[in-house]
């Protein structure tokens, strides 16, 4: 029974770690998109 609990705990920790990497990657993608929007807004502002 203890062995089963230990295996489940390890699988749970691995799932949590992969979720952190996914959220981190998504944050970088959103940041990159925001930077492109900001650059486009500055280009428009300079043309005015």
TrEMBL record:
Keywords: Cell membrane, Lipoprotein, Membrane, Palmitate, Signal. GO terms for biological process: response to toxic substance. GO terms for cellular component: membrane. This is Entericidin A/B family lipoprotein. It comes from Glaciimonas soli. Belongs to the EcnA/EcnB lipoprotein family. Residues 29-48 are annotated as: Disordered. Residues 35-48 have a biased composition (Low complexity). Residues 1-21 form the signal peptide. InterPro entries: Entericidin. The lineage of its organism: Bacteria, Pseudomonadati, Pseudomonadota, Betaproteobacteria, Burkholderiales.
